């Protein structure tokens, strides 16, 4: 059963350098390889969902440059509806510089470019796509007022909302109250709540702080420790799926994009999260972001391998 997902968010070009270790302050380091690919949290989540067979509409802003033109073609190549992909004539496309070391740890610096100019008016122009979706997915690599406007439209149309609060920033109370499912990682959760997340107990405490602020459900992604699914009545720790990690970049986006698909296909929250946890694990076994996301047949086979069907 196919589902209809609208993503309002960022588009970047990713420059990923493999390095023996992360550089120290002021240090010049020679890397192993350089990989150029398409990224941005919004784009990654849209492509992850499209590769699993969802009907995806993207609302984003690109620079009028070679990177922007390439990003548009990349969306089209993956079957994403680009009706509401716009070009900014004054600002360059967003760019992410990523370092990944031999221990599969990374650090990322983002220059938002045109992403910073995706406006509430742009979202209003795409209102029909939001209202037609089963699920709306947003992040914070675009202005928070733009995400808020998208969530207002979704709630008015009874469309499920998923918020990936990354990069973490202070959020208006209204945005949290319009969020059906908030999916942060450990550091983002600590910034949002002030509660450190060193173990599962602290994770639950932080997640419940978000629930108290109006979020309906929380999934806290814990990297190599799995994920924590917290609802008003339950808390379930999903154990990690052990794989040989190569590059963790985009794992959270693989989780969120696949989660939106599985929820849209009618799976209960916990079951959808279990499968999304598996897809995220599978994604870290390959270099890059979107190139590491599995197509549906590979994803289903991996889930069956781990007893998730």
Summarize the structure.
With 309 residues, the chain is of the alpha/beta class.
Query: For the largest beta sheet, what order do the strands appear in spatially?
Result: 5-4-1-8-9-10-11-12-13
Q: Residue-averaged pLDDT, rounded?
A: 95
Order of helices and strands, N to C?
A: EEEHEHEEEHHEHEHEHHEEEHHH
Query: Helical element count?
Result: 11
| Overall number of strands | 13
Helical amount among residues, as a percent range?
Answer: 25-40%
Distance between the termini: 15 Å
Integer-rounded radius of gyration: 18 Å
* Biggest β-sheet description: 9 strands, mixed
Strand content is: 15-25%
Low-confidence stretches: none
Coarse structural class:
alpha/beta
Shape: globular
Features:
309 residues; alpha/beta; four-stranded mixed β-sheet; 11 helices; 13 strands; globular
Tell me what the structure shows:
By secondary structure, the chain is of the alpha/beta class. It has helices spanning 41-51, 66-77, 120-125, 127-132, 144-156, 173-177, 186-193, 200-212, 251-264, 269-283, 296-305; strands at residues 4-8, 12-18, 33-39, 55-63, 81-88, 94-100, 106-111, 135-138, 160-163, 181-182, 217-221, 227-230, 235-238. It has a 9-stranded mixed β-sheet with strand order 5-4-1-8-9-10-11-12-13, sandwiched between helices. It has a 4-stranded mixed β-sheet with strand order 3-2-6-7. The longest helix has 15 residues, at 269-283. The model has no long low-confidence stretch (mean pLDDT 95).
Secondary structure layout plus pairing:
Layout: E1 4-8, E2 12-18, E3 33-39, H1 41-51, E4 55-63, H2 66-77, E5 81-88, E6 94-100, E7 106-111, H3 120-125, H4 127-132, E8 135-138, H5 144-156, E9 160-163, H6 173-177, E10 181-182, H7 186-193, H8 200-212, E11 217-221, E12 227-230, E13 235-238, H9 251-264, H10 269-283, H11 296-305
Parallel strand pairs: 1-4, 1-8, 2-6, 4-5, 8-9, 9-10, 10-11
Antiparallel strand pairs: 2-3, 6-7, 11-12, 12-13
Helix pairs in contact: 1-9, 7-8, 9-10
